[in-house]
Amino acid sequence: MRCVCLDEKDLEDLLRGYKQGSVTLQDALGMLKKLPYEDMGFAMVDHHRQLRQGFPEVIYAAGKTKEQIRDIMLSLYHDGQENIIATRAEPDVYAYMKEALPDVQYNTPARMLYVERNKTVPDASREVLVLAAGTSDLPVAEEARLTAHLMGNAVRSCYDVGVAGIHRLFAHMQDIERANVIIVTAGMEGALASVVGGLTPKPVIAVPTSVGYGASFHGLSALLAMLNSCASGVAVMNIDNGFGAGALASKINHMR
Amino acid sequence: MRCVCLDEKDLEDLLRGYKQGSVTLQDALGMLKKLPYEDMGFAMVDHHRQLRQGFPEVIYAAGKTKEQIRDIMLSLYHDGQENIIATRAEPDVYAYMKEALPDVQYNTPARMLYVERNKTVPDASREVLVLAAGTSDLPVAEEARLTAHLMGNAVRSCYDVGVAGIHRLFAHMQDIERANVIIVTAGMEGALASVVGGLTPKPVIAVPTSVGYGASFHGLSALLAMLNSCASGVAVMNIDNGFGAGALASKINHMR
Amino acid sequence: MRCVCLDEKDLEDLLRGYKQGSVTLQDALGMLKKLPYEDMGFAMVDHHRQLRQGFPEVIYAAGKTKEQIRDIMLSLYHDGQENIIATRAEPDVYAYMKEALPDVQYNTPARMLYVERNKTVPDASREVLVLAAGTSDLPVAEEARLTAHLMGNAVRSCYDVGVAGIHRLFAHMQDIERANVIIVTAGMEGALASVVGGLTPKPVIAVPTSVGYGASFHGLSALLAMLNSCASGVAVMNIDNGFGAGALASKINHMR
Amino acid sequence: MRCVCLDEKDLEDLLRGYKQGSVTLQDALGMLKKLPYEDMGFAMVDHHRQLRQGFPEVIYAAGKTKEQIRDIMLSLYHDGQENIIATRAEPDVYAYMKEALPDVQYNTPARMLYVERNKTVPDASREVLVLAAGTSDLPVAEEARLTAHLMGNAVRSCYDVGVAGIHRLFAHMQDIERANVIIVTAGMEGALASVVGGLTPKPVIAVPTSVGYGASFHGLSALLAMLNSCASGVAVMNIDNGFGAGALASKINHMR
Amino acid sequence: MRCVCLDEKDLEDLLRGYKQGSVTLQDALGMLKKLPYEDMGFAMVDHHRQLRQGFPEVIYAAGKTKEQIRDIMLSLYHDGQENIIATRAEPDVYAYMKEALPDVQYNTPARMLYVERNKTVPDASREVLVLAAGTSDLPVAEEARLTAHLMGNAVRSCYDVGVAGIHRLFAHMQDIERANVIIVTAGMEGALASVVGGLTPKPVIAVPTSVGYGASFHGLSALLAMLNSCASGVAVMNIDNGFGAGALASKINHMR
Amino acid sequence: MRCVCLDEKDLEDLLRGYKQGSVTLQDALGMLKKLPYEDMGFAMVDHHRQLRQGFPEVIYAAGKTKEQIRDIMLSLYHDGQENIIATRAEPDVYAYMKEALPDVQYNTPARMLYVERNKTVPDASREVLVLAAGTSDLPVAEEARLTAHLMGNAVRSCYDVGVAGIHRLFAHMQDIERANVIIVTAGMEGALASVVGGLTPKPVIAVPTSVGYGASFHGLSALLAMLNSCASGVAVMNIDNGFGAGALASKINHMR
Amino acid sequence: MRCVCLDEKDLEDLLRGYKQGSVTLQDALGMLKKLPYEDMGFAMVDHHRQLRQGFPEVIYAAGKTKEQIRDIMLSLYHDGQENIIATRAEPDVYAYMKEALPDVQYNTPARMLYVERNKTVPDASREVLVLAAGTSDLPVAEEARLTAHLMGNAVRSCYDVGVAGIHRLFAHMQDIERANVIIVTAGMEGALASVVGGLTPKPVIAVPTSVGYGASFHGLSALLAMLNSCASGVAVMNIDNGFGAGALASKINHMR
Amino acid sequence: MRCVCLDEKDLEDLLRGYKQGSVTLQDALGMLKKLPYEDMGFAMVDHHRQLRQGFPEVIYAAGKTKEQIRDIMLSLYHDGQENIIATRAEPDVYAYMKEALPDVQYNTPARMLYVERNKTVPDASREVLVLAAGTSDLPVAEEARLTAHLMGNAVRSCYDVGVAGIHRLFAHMQDIERANVIIVTAGMEGALASVVGGLTPKPVIAVPTSVGYGASFHGLSALLAMLNSCASGVAVMNIDNGFGAGALASKINHMR
Fold first, then answer.
1. Which of B39, B96, E124, G229 has its Cβ near the most Cβ atoms within 10 Å?
2. Residues E8-24: pLDDT tens digits?
3. Nearest CA in chain B to H220
4. What is the value of ipTM here, to two decimals?
5. A161: distance to nearest CA of chain H, Å?
């Protein structure tokens, strides 16, 4: 989909042309009547540009063919200078992509395909902390960590700090106190989000994972627990949505 | 329903009577053929007697009329010397019952009607600890506490020790270490059970409560969280089932 | 529950006392062994103090008696100079409270009881925007708005801007572009969160409301929709949790 | 199953025969007594005939053997002159079918097997518009599009116009305004149906898709959202039921 | 919320004014730059006008105060000549409204408040048929019937024609055959929609009702059944959404 | 709704009339063409008549006005000689009905209104046994018992025989062995159905009740348990559907 | 598990032995005290014997190894003269079994392994009718049909008679009227059970199948629909439980 | 993650060092300020030590690589003398592990990898009894049995004692009466837990299994049934959580 957009310059040209007679009233009217959507697009483009200062469009690889992923990735690669991300990409996509674009890298647990070329050093005083309750939550935590990293944040991660051995969490108390934004990934009972939420005044982004069995119901258990967190300031993402958490953490972390 | 039971003495009498001729083969056969159920009853009675060493039948008042509750309670009152419990009794039942049985007492938050007359001093070295995550969980916690108390246990309770302010829980670390069995009542995300389960080698009985709103879905959230506890040794009761938790804690606490 | 805390000064006194002999080795050891929890409490207090720079403890009035609410509120009133909030308070609590504390105010749709006495002018350049899809979502939106306001934020609100008449939303495009953090409250299909999430690079906090009937299942429909938002950067709160959204928005908005 | 049907002509013959004596009272009675079901069949046939002016029976291939599908398809092929559709057919069925019936075609994403032989030009002024929120919704959208096309409608489709980038939708505003009936396919939060429903006075048929993960619960999230659409005039189909949407759109589009 | 809209005339005046010099380039640009949303509003107004040829805005009374309902209703009453509808209005709202607007009428089972003043005779050859499976489904059926009637359709209704006594339905076969659009309201197992869907080539709008008990789960049972209808061409509305069904039927019935 | 039905006699008259000339071909055709539905009705009437040998139409009082219930009941009273049943009738309906029809009786727990006038003695050798797990299941059990009784069956009932005290059930072993059909009503975990299903070769009709709290989810727990009964030959009714169980038991019990 | 059972003869021997002195009082007592369970077993055996007049134990093959299935089947084969059934057996089990027991047969769609050797001619006047709504419901219908057949019933089956083409059902009206018990298997919306329930005074056993997609939720949709059937006398089995339906139908059909 | 812990000895050394001047006030303060977490660790270690008297850390193999499992297992093997358990390990992990650690054993149905080297004879008078309702529940029962065995308990198991043939259960009455703690594993309707709970005064740990099909919903049916058990003293574990049941039973069984 492509929408032809008019920026302010085009608009000015149109008005001048009409005044000078090179554009008829009818043509000007016809064009301006269609403007809402084009201007809408215009506004979007502007918005996109600003967003893009942080990061360009991200590719959701699930349900796309190798060819489609390659084409979009190459297009992003040649059009800009930013880092590029494709989430939920299987290993065979990486093998295929590697040939077309040797710069591409792959994070196996996170199933993320990416090109890292923006070498701007992130603000080390504003750390995003990614916590994972168990080692099985690692794929989701890694997706969050890598996303935040590629979007220009200093990221620290502590895995296997679930509440059943709460001393493991407390050993990371300094990391928690230092963090600017905290992402908590946890499956099963998802209790880590509440405990961390009570230990910090900073925003906590909770990501329920589908880790568990039986009555975990593929992450429902952790999702409900996190939504009902008695700690205020805990926001919740979809089950296994590490990317979303990383992107939101980056948005918050870049606020000034 | 009443089932006529034969104890060992009856059985011996029957056999002797048959040998001596006072009981015919036909009568003995007829009686013995019915035995399974009567003996079944017999076994039950035996079992009941043993159980009753701890406690007699408990009245579930919900869905019973005032008159029914009174009749059962008076029957238990006159037949034994044990404490008596009726759970889920509304205040008006207490008013009604008080007239028929002045010894009766009422715990308002727990909605428990009871007669306490067994003055045996419980073993103070074997404490049941009842924890409540928030003050709203108090009715369920009180039901558990009072049940365990009336069943002959030393009980200690700490309320409002939820995980969002985990220092409140740690201030009770000694109580946790001292306890023989721990009951955890919590609504919302029910995380307290997992944290406590990780802090103690003793059995933890988790009772989800219907405290919360929205996605707590009347206790479902806490129930699922507790079932998925990553701490081993956590067993779960039905939502708001404080009585069951107290009774189970008492069973475990009396084991030797 | 009260936990006796030791701050750094106490710790120093203890050590000096021990060196000087006024504290025995045994006593010092006994005290320090208990320290984890007290220090934990200590850390918490520290943490609380920092949090409190924004706001002190908030009272969840649901399930508390009028007397309890009054006592906590008066205690907060006399102990500090900050604004005070009690959420989910029914009108009769307000009437009762008004007598004990004439400064108290009440927001009827939000069911919030509050004392506003911190007159610090919020940073007008950092606006929290509260959007409500329909007029029925207003109670939740108002809870969010008032919470953010009392926590020291400039807040703007636009109600009845649901997606079925999307021009109503676009008429507020400037508000959306100006906002630092956006709270979206919506029931039924909860689509507003996704649309707004696509229009802004700022964090969006989505609050599903229980508005609707039939297959809205008391807010489940909006909750699921928001969790599945195809716009990245949308975080979700519990159904009807306007307070949580306001508190989180305030945390994010105060980040620098 | 086959039911012998009597049309009006048969009925008249029967009556005349009876009057003239060639049919006995007994035989006439016997036949007329069975009539309800046969007439029922008769009504059905009539109904079928009318329906068939649009389209004959459609084959639901899922759960049928290759042989069964071939036999039904060949029977329809030789009995009429209309287009033929088999939905949810896997690629290997196509290979098998192609040998038996070289005219058969296959739409891979839609998994539809079809024979197109009715060359009637559809009414171009009455367009069915098929929208898909994302590229992953394409299989469902294609099933809807092809169904409507084969049933004799002018169909236009715009894919990847989801609400998270709403300018992409507005770029198709003219298509929306021109359309006579609109089919909206969307997974995840399914918000597109509400937005489109608010932009057009025409009927909107919403098809939730199973696209998404985690709390999308295989399309439940989009289904609930669409059922709760705040835009009036939005009707909902089963999850992934593109065929049903296409068939209903065709019914509505052929109304005069 | 009010959005200032420019119609084509305003646009022409603006352009002419600019050409003639009464509007500066800067002012014209400033105005046109804001156009998207205003034009958006403009497009909406246009759309609204067309929709309104059928019917103006409908008031959803649930969750609105009597005063709010009165004000909106009076505003609609004085601004136009069309019929007015307020859905889900309780009887006391009617009593209150009757004083302010004596023309107002009330349908008790449907809980609809309305003013009927458009005396245009509907096209009798294009009937909307409203079927109700049982007498308990009548409130929803009446809401659908009255909505379709007030929106200018000839409506016929047959109640208590559920499938458990299918002869009752067949006695209305002529009504079914004559109908242009059919609305089926049914609770419990909701089977009526499938049976009717198989009897007619016309669009069927199925409205599950919350009638039933136990495993009907407040309409979920009928909702799922209708979504899974094996008859093609059945579209489903939210549980108890009679209004939506009436409005959609009217849209379809007015198509030409 | 009333459907004019033609029985075989009418049909014969019609045919003879046509032969004799008193009925024209056109009239005969017109009549016969409508026959399907009238014959359908005819078949139904026949069916009804046979069913009625057991019992006439039963009134589902929920959602009907007092006047409607009275009118239907009086109509049934004056048209036949059979017993009459109205289920789910509140006590005030009884008071109202008693004036209009002094013969009417009321079963309070079952909320059944009935007239018993058929004095046929049921076959005592074919007993329907109604079991209730707890006293709270009594309303459902009574509805089942009274229904079966009024439909002409010898009925025996044993209440409070739940599996937690299985000796209580075994004391009724002879009743179980003697029964021809067994109805089991149970809430909570609904285990009684499986135990009884394993003890008898006769059909067991299981009725889950909404008795319980928390995770009983208003009968869902018992419903699922009964559907999953490992004993073969257990059929399940809707939650709390005592009437349906009684009616089905009667159908089975009358089979010969 | 094996339980040593005493039949009446053993009991008599024991008593006589004791009287004659060959059994001591102690031994007799010891034996009789254990009797409940053994007698329980005894009762069961008796019960089993009676049940077995119809059919012996049925093997649920799912989750059993080939060897286990073979051993049980051979044991049943050599111990009796009845038909033998193993349900949910995969084709490879058949191949394996065929070698060990050449008499074994296999019904592919029903996945049933069986030995048919009881040549008793069933009572042709008492037919079990098995209906299937669609061809995809055939596996479940076949399991029901074959079970009822092997248990000694005359069985008739009509497949593909779903309600969307209700004339197909009515063409089988005579089969329905003739049947003694009717089994209805249907997936999707499961409406067939209600329609058939309204057409017959005989017991209807409804089996929801997992046929469908999307909101059929693996048979939940049909299950709920059937539980809520507005036709009385419809009992419901677990999803896809064709065996249970066949066994129950056989129990009912053999009643006299 | 590793947390450096201070035991009492370290603390004493620190204090003495400070008094003697070898540790400065600043260093002592710095160290003690960090103590909460370290002490927390300390408390944990203590707790771990005690727990470890029974058993060391257990490895949850699901989601871990072969290498990770081997490393942890070897570390546990070389660090202690206790039995070692890894749950949910697939057979290929066993093959791999066997090479690295020849002492390792594997229980196929339970999917448990273990090293048994603690030869302490368990207290035979305190038996843990593991019951399984059906043979399909065996994997879960075996996991529970082996866990309890390896944790030092005398364990007895009776499988295939489900309630549909209750005499099979009663044949094990002596085992039930002798047991100190009872674990009940059951799928489908999970009724065994309630029956056993009514037969014993000892704690019953109920483990729902995912055995079943259709409306068992992967164990939900058994889970709900067990949570709603009318027998008091029944605690519930997550679906298929045999390990948790064995560990809890061991905790209870070791209480004195």
1. G229
2. 566 667 777 877 778 77
3. B224
4. 0.80
5. 8
pLDDT above 70: residue E44: no
- Spell out which residues of chain D touch residue F18, defining contact as CB-CB under 8 Å: 15, 18-19
pLDDT surpassing 60 at residue H33: no
In chain H, what residues touch G219 (CB-CB under 8 Å)? 214-215
Side-chain-facing half-sphere of F210: CA atoms under 13 Å: 12
Buried b (16+ CB within 10 A) or exposed e, D212-223: bbbbbbbbbbbb
Architecture of domain H127-253: 3-Layer(aba) Sandwich (3.40)
Shortest alpha-carbon distance between residue F194 and chain G (Å)? 13
Neighboring chain F residues of E211 at a CB cutoff of 8 Å? 63
Amino acid letter, F150: L
Per-residue pLDDT reduced to its tens digit, C204-222: 999 999 999 999 999 999 9
Those residues of chain B whose CB sits closer than 8 Å to some CB in chain G are: 8, 11-12, 15-16, 18-19, 25, 28-29, 32-33, 35-37, 39-40, 42-43
Taking Cα atoms as reference points, which of C146, B3, D48 lies closest to residue F167?
B3
User: Mutual orientation of helices E8-20 and A25-33 as an angle, nearest 10°?
Assistant: 130
How large is the C-alpha radius of gyration of chain B?
22
Closest Cβ–Cβ partner in D173, D235, D255 for E236: D235
Model confidence, pTM: 0.84
Residue C156 has a pLDDT of 96
Asked if A6 contacts A40 with a C-beta cutoff of 8 angstroms, the reply is no
Is G5's pLDDT higher than 80?
A: no
**Scanning the structure block, which residue is given the tokens 């100079």?**
C81
For residue H143, the distance in angstroms to the closest alpha carbon of chain C comes to: 36
> Which residues sit opposite F157 in a β-bridge?
F130
DSSP string, B133-144: SSGGGHHHHHHH
Q: Are B171 and A139 in contact (CB under 8 A)?
A: no
Structure tokens at B160: 């409002």
Task: Judge if C34-116 and C127-253 fold alike in CATH terms.
Answer: no
Q: Are C37 and B167 a contacting pair at CB < 8 A?
A: yes
Interchain contact, H35 vs C36, CB within 8 Å: yes
Burial of B78 per CB tally in 10 Å (0-12, 13-18, 19+): exposed
Give the pairing of strands G234-236 and H204-208.
unpaired
List the domain boundaries for chain D.
34-116, 127-253
Alpha-carbon distance of B179 to B126, in angstroms, equals 7
**Calpha distance C9→H92 (Å, rounded):** 59
Give the number of residues written for chain A. Answer: 256
Cβ separation of D228 and C216 shorter than 8 Å?
A: yes
Q: What is the pLDDT of residue C34?
A: 41
Strand stretches in D110-200, DSSP E: 112-115, 127-132, 154-159, 181-186
Assigned CATH for H34-116: 3.30.110
Residues A90, A111: Cα–Cα separation, whole Å: 6
Task: Say whether H40 and A166 touch across the interface (CB within 8 A).
Answer: yes
Which pLDDT tens digit goes with each residue over C53-97?
Answer: 346 778 888 878 898 889 888 988 887 788 999 999 999 999 999
Chain F positions in Cβ-Cβ contact with residue D9 (cut-off 8 Å): none
